[in-house]
Amino acid sequence: MPEPTVDQLYKLRHSLAHVLAQAVTKLWPGTMITIGPPIETGCYYDFLFPQPISDADFGTIEKEMKKIIYQGQTFRRDELSVKDAKAFWRERKQKFKVELIEDLEKNEKVTTVTHYANIGPKGEDAFVDLCRGGHVESFKEIPPDCFKIMSLAGAYWRGDEKREQLMRIYLAAFPTKEELDQYLAMMEEAKRRDHRRLGKELDLFTFSDLVGPGLPLWTPRGTILRNALDNFVWSLREAKGYMKVTIPHVTKKELYETSGHWQKFSDELFKITTREGHEFAMKPMNCPHHTQIYACQKRSYRDLPQRYAETTTCYRDEQTGELHGLSRVRGFTQDDAHVFCRQIHVKQEILNIWEIVDTFYAAVGFGKLKVRLSLHDPKAPEKYLGTPEMWKRAESALREIANERNADFFESPGEAAFYGPKVDFITKDSIGREWQVATIQLDINMPERFDLSCVNEEGKDERIVMIHAAIMGSLERFLSIYIEHTAGLFPLWMAPTQVGIVPIADTHAEFALKLEADLKAKGLRTQYFSHDESLGKRIRDGEKSRIPYLLVMGDKEIEAKSVTVRNVKTKKQVTVTIDEFIAKVTSDVALRALEPSIG
């Protein structure tokens, strides 16, 4: 069993996972070890500790890790029979390793496994782990200041909430201290922008123990923000010929058995049994329902494409430990759309969706997106539905569109869904993190399962194809990204409150209230800050609420029929006439301007 070829960063992070486990088992004898894979920013390792540990222990662990690194330990690779390996771990009372070997034996039919031993300064086995390999030659290759323990989290063994509760230690690791410092600075900025904190500060959403974890409740301010974004998506779709549809939130078991989702998502479904004993489920996605709208009548080729769009909530029974603010929830709202069309329509329909995606993400300030073309693996055709010719035609269309759109794209063979290739759009936020956002999926599976067809020019039934399109995808997840991207400083057109009215004193209230009424008549969202508090406090409150413009008015402004405009984003303050302010602001809103034109 040769050691796999892996890059140096992988080796660094993988080796540090071993160093972390060695340090932990030395500091806490009797700790049970599980798995410790490299991840995008470092590595983690899951442990079952004999006693509780906390963040206060991080320094002690890091100190022990550095001692191990300074020793310049090396790795030794041993290949053992499955029988001997199980005996090895049973003797050390490491039941999770035994279970892993038993699974390898059962699922991969292995007869041998590999161990890697950390060789200590006296030639002793300082630590041994069950591992496939991919390490540095010597710990001397690991800079002792290139890593940092980031957090401690609970994790169920095998992700099963009925199994043991483990403690997961996350480690950040980079090739140099400078890169680590850059990452840590980014993480500090991410904390400042955390959507969970800003959501509360800006009164956008909340969670309730009575409602349940993972089920966000949107306040009036948060709902304005959601609706502004969703209405924009709908305006783009409506211009491309989409029609709104509405479906229920529950379905009979049979719908998802036909689609295949009952088998694939059974553990994630919220299931309902009626008084008559029928099995229903809360919908985890919308596509099977939409097929039944298409199938409710016989369709001619002249009726196609049929384009259905709906923003609706779906539900998945996520594990409590995996929930995280808006980014991982149990109730999430999708701006979902499905196109039912012929093969000859596919290119143009995907092109139309791509235009919507580019327009939307430019308007919200993400700019040019990177694109991943997720294609099938031609060496494993048995994994996919449809003929090689169908796949070739579909994937060629995606490449052609990507080139026409002058997209920054790359191909990922083997990443396609079993029912068809897809286009995944990737953006980078203001602090450098990458996120997958919109997606377009070409589906040749669902039409087969539901026998969807149209009558073609020859009067014969012709199998259609289905295109799935999500622009924001989950509104909750998108907003978790967007709130952090903007730090809550939303563009004027979507801001929950667009203008704050701040009269200096009681004598200016009549003028201020008249101005507020005029702004509301123009469709602007305003907030009146009464003179009961000091002027400084009212301005600070407006800035804390991230209101784009604060209008301050006193004797001079009333006399000149003007306002002093404080731009909350730039902190600049200018005086303009009321007519000029209204003209510029209403224009910015209509054009969905990203940057304010005043100040």
Characterise this structure.
- The chain is globular, with a radius of gyration of 29 Å.
- The strands form seven sheets. An eight-stranded mixed beta sheet has the order 11-15-16-23-20-19-17-18. Strands 1, 2, 3, 7 and 8 form a five-stranded antiparallel beta sheet that branches. A five-stranded mixed beta sheet has the order 25-24-26-27-28, sandwiched between helices.
- Helix 1 crosses helix 2 (about 60-70), helix 7 packs antiparallel against helix 11 (about 345-365) and helix 11 (about 345-365) crosses helix 12 (about 390-405).
- The chain has three domains: about 10-195, Threonyl-trna Synthetase, Chain A, domain 2 (Threonyl-tRNA Synthetase, Chain A, domain 2, 2-Layer Sandwich); about 200-485, 2-Layer Sandwich (BirA Bifunctional Protein, domain 2), CATH 3.30.930; about 500-590, 3-Layer(aba) Sandwich (Rossmann fold), CATH 3.40.50.
- It contains 18 helices and 28 strands.
- Helices cover about 35% and strands about 25% of the residues.
- Strand 19 (about 420-430) and strand 20 form a beta hairpin.
- The protein is α+β, with helices and mostly antiparallel strands and about 600 residues long.
